[in-house]
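Input:
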Amino acid sequence: MNFASDNAGPMHPSVLDAITKANTGYEMPYGNDTIMPRVRDLVRKTFEAPEAAVYLVATGTAANALALATYTNSWDTMFAHRVSHVEEDECGAPDFYANGARITLVDGAGAKMDPDSLRHAITHTGDKGVHGVQRGPVTITQATEVGTLYSLEEIAQITAIAREYGLKTHLDGARFANACAALGCTAAEMTWNAGIDMVSFGGTKNGCAGVEAVIFFDPEKAWEFELRRKRGAHLFSKHRYLSAQMEAYLQGDLWLELGAKANANCARLVKGLETVEGADIPDRPEANMVFAHLPRAAHRRAMEAGALYYLFPFDASLEGPDDELIRCRMVCDWNKSHAEIDALIALLRG
Amino acid sequence: MNFASDNAGPMHPSVLDAITKANTGYEMPYGNDTIMPRVRDLVRKTFEAPEAAVYLVATGTAANALALATYTNSWDTMFAHRVSHVEEDECGAPDFYANGARITLVDGAGAKMDPDSLRHAITHTGDKGVHGVQRGPVTITQATEVGTLYSLEEIAQITAIAREYGLKTHLDGARFANACAALGCTAAEMTWNAGIDMVSFGGTKNGCAGVEAVIFFDPEKAWEFELRRKRGAHLFSKHRYLSAQMEAYLQGDLWLELGAKANANCARLVKGLETVEGADIPDRPEANMVFAHLPRAAHRRAMEAGALYYLFPFDASLEGPDDELIRCRMVCDWNKSHAEIDALIALLRG
Amino acid sequence: MNFASDNAGPMHPSVLDAITKANTGYEMPYGNDTIMPRVRDLVRKTFEAPEAAVYLVATGTAANALALATYTNSWDTMFAHRVSHVEEDECGAPDFYANGARITLVDGAGAKMDPDSLRHAITHTGDKGVHGVQRGPVTITQATEVGTLYSLEEIAQITAIAREYGLKTHLDGARFANACAALGCTAAEMTWNAGIDMVSFGGTKNGCAGVEAVIFFDPEKAWEFELRRKRGAHLFSKHRYLSAQMEAYLQGDLWLELGAKANANCARLVKGLETVEGADIPDRPEANMVFAHLPRAAHRRAMEAGALYYLFPFDASLEGPDDELIRCRMVCDWNKSHAEIDALIALLRG
Amino acid sequence: MNFASDNAGPMHPSVLDAITKANTGYEMPYGNDTIMPRVRDLVRKTFEAPEAAVYLVATGTAANALALATYTNSWDTMFAHRVSHVEEDECGAPDFYANGARITLVDGAGAKMDPDSLRHAITHTGDKGVHGVQRGPVTITQATEVGTLYSLEEIAQITAIAREYGLKTHLDGARFANACAALGCTAAEMTWNAGIDMVSFGGTKNGCAGVEAVIFFDPEKAWEFELRRKRGAHLFSKHRYLSAQMEAYLQGDLWLELGAKANANCARLVKGLETVEGADIPDRPEANMVFAHLPRAAHRRAMEAGALYYLFPFDASLEGPDDELIRCRMVCDWNKSHAEIDALIALLRG
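Output:
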């Protein structure tokens, strides 16, 4: 009964199948395998971006850090939400890959950048001449770290501000599929149509073993990215296994199907949580993740029965008053069964 | 007929099988999967090193760069052979991971450090006080980049010099298995018994999809390594798939069996090459790789029939005098069939 | 009539005199001059710290960045006030020198860290395990960037929190003398007595041409600092000219005398400003710097007559309603004459 | 009797005088002083380069590292002679400032790059595609670290090779004046006329206290350099004191006059050394520095009488056979008196 993260789940059978099929004979290494050109075509088609530069890496942090670094000078600062993976969960990888660049925090409800807060952060950064760090790219997360979504208009609003100041924009799409499925929009609509310049397109959390695509809609810095990826030790020799995962993931829009499934699972979970006495769900879950405040007694019942998910703070104690609300995060991937979800709810309800 | 590299071959069926088996249900991410403790035990047992810190990454460059960085200050220089992967083939990853540290080149025949050359490099580095870069770790490659081997005595000689100056030692074992099989020694004998402090233990080139173990015989910097790995974006969320590969690779000493097979394949290839008229093989191949000088006509016949391997220089032309010798590299993995080897020889012989 | 900054003023005659006296014959370079041992002794005596490691650099940014880097791993974050030189005015030098470490911002009135805000920043940093950046040193500025002061108790409160979490503390003393003179305390009381581990002791803004001392009360990392300073290109060959400045600055407590003079000049200025109709001075000036809101007409009169000081925003226009208040910063050094101050006030009053 | 280095000598009186004159009233900081525009003009006139970007820093290492970094990607390697300041005497500052770039060593007699060795280094660097570090700028030292000179033709030969591969060229001119005076050429002839793109123009070793000009003949990256300088903590607040030094140094071609004097002093010294019995001077001294092999007894006599200069190795013992030759370096600045030189010779001759 593991609701800790969508990265705790297995590969989708089609993805494993693709790895198995790829495991025959010899393939040239380092991205020169025969599968990768098909992957490139599929990404370009999916994003309606025939010129896009497309690369594969194995972790979301690598995708984010390498993409951002490509457009960040060491004396720049990147603009990210206070609650974002690049700020909180990458142990400074973006700073490292951008040779010591900085992250300037932007606020906003539901882990989404408030346009005014972004504008303030940008203008405040720019008022020190040579003495201050300079303005670098803006990065947003979709779906966000708390399971909410930017609407297409909200994305366009953010990128318009960035563009006004000549800044590049990046979308951390570790949960791209969940967002796209929930919004019912195309990949193009959620990205370059809305002004996004580069994307980390996640596969790992949504049915793959470990693969993310980095997509630059303008390929001008493609070669530089390749050098950065190699220097960062993220160019795989047996690259075919990354290619195979991504091909399976894109074929027949499996990514979208799995994203939608995960969202549906989460919706079922949320519906159940709402029936737990005392439960409070402040941010409306829009993708595959829910943050809820539940009574300690509910957590105790679930966890003693083996349920896995995160409490906040991480070391919150199950000892104490039964009624006290403790914040928790629960995540569903495509693979969750209705039975498992219902069993969790039953435990929580007691 | 691909003899370009041992990273062009497939996974061993047992390794794929392990991935398949690992693909059920939920596992905690980031190295907290249930397979990893078994991997740790297997590595420790294989190396007879019950205290060793053991970590998995997905590329050999990551293993080298992260291991070395853990013992290299940014103002240090690492000592490496002029013909080594860290110097020639990692786009500066060790420099990057060690925050701008330098590599000092050491010479020696057969891509092996000459002890006098190492000693000279170390003492020359140390004579400038605060003005010069400082002495960092010594790294050797076993099997070397040209397919030769350090004897155990030669390793001990190198590490003794390092130790004399208080320097740590690292063994780049991208082809650890081939070396160990060829020397007929244990993993412990080739490493800590001979004075080695840390090892990149390669799986990728020898039957895995992409996994390397980093092993520190002294675990004092284990936590620092974990931070460096995360910051470098090399901590896998779905880590179970790295664990599964490595477990299969170590179980029943599959690694050693595959290394021996690759070596035997190469021996067959070398034997054949010696029958090609005009062939010259300067460095005696001791593992799974051969560098040979062959007449252009031989290369032309092989390549026109689809054989793949590297010429030096990379852009050497197949047009020109038939007799002229052109240097080439051919590598065998465990998966090469006798038929394939013999077919290549037949082509080369014409 | 330049009130733009205390770095716009000249050297004190004694400092120039010392440079002139030092300009005879030959002196060994790189800190091995015959003056430096005396400087070291003077610093140790001034700070009552006989074991302290003492080094000279030429800019305040170098002092801060090098000192902090010595105790900051690349995966750490330093804790600094939102309004601090390291955050706002060093173009990311601390991040650069600490190989990509980060700065976490702490809030508090008057550009002084609020203890609760610091504690929150520290605990929030520590709750992500390997995924988040780790806790690095705490740095405070005394006098602050807005001309206020930490009391000795307030410093002790901050360092106590740092110590609780095992963190080192740094004091950016670009205006150390002004603070010490204003508080009427000793250098020791304002630093190690109050729990400070390292100090940037400024000379440049207070009568020197360009010299700052970096002081570590615990000399354990002295050699590492020397390497960092050299690698940062901040080890002067003709170091005697740094030594000479600092010796003159410390002799007879010239530093303290000049700090007191600058403060007195500022007090006179503030008194005058309070008589400007409409003036508003929110933060009480405690050292040698005042931030005031003055009517546009007052600024217009002063600036058209040649007065120099900064408006906020930097590009604030002198055209517009006369009564509108515009924020400004005025700084006094030791060299300001009463006449100059009074002339400015007269202009502002109209 | 200090012949250890030209950085052991004093400022020229005119330079001190300029500092004294600059020490009146208020000047805007950070390069906005009223002297700097005149300095810029003087440099441009001296180099016949009306478009050149001109900046001042205080150390030669800063000049080299910042200039090179401006044209070096972190994945590049700079080409430098094995015996050069950037390689041997800057504790890795160029690597640090270029965010981990590498230095590839070039050989050649007299510490001058052999064109064939340079070409080989460049082509060897370029043959690995994404796997190897990429080609960065070529830097030469004039006068060299062993006191020899490139002829104008030799410089042109080196820069022509660089240009062939699209690489930028840098001249480390810590002893620019000595070289220019010895060659009897103009500053333009020795630099951009001969294909040089950027220059570290040294003042410190030749009569200044601590100032070097960085000159880019193409100003396209001027702003980037300013950011790098600030971030490196090398932008001086009281910049007027750098400006004043450089103005005095350039006025009336003082730099050239002092360079010529230093050379003449060295010529006198060399002439004397040739009369020391057993003396051997392998590289012909062409500027202000001589490397000689002298009998131990001669060294002993000189050093026991207080002479200061460097032996190689640094810890060479004065105990031992009288006749044994020990290598030494002696450097003359403009300030050496004939009496001092003759006294040293007298001691050495015994």
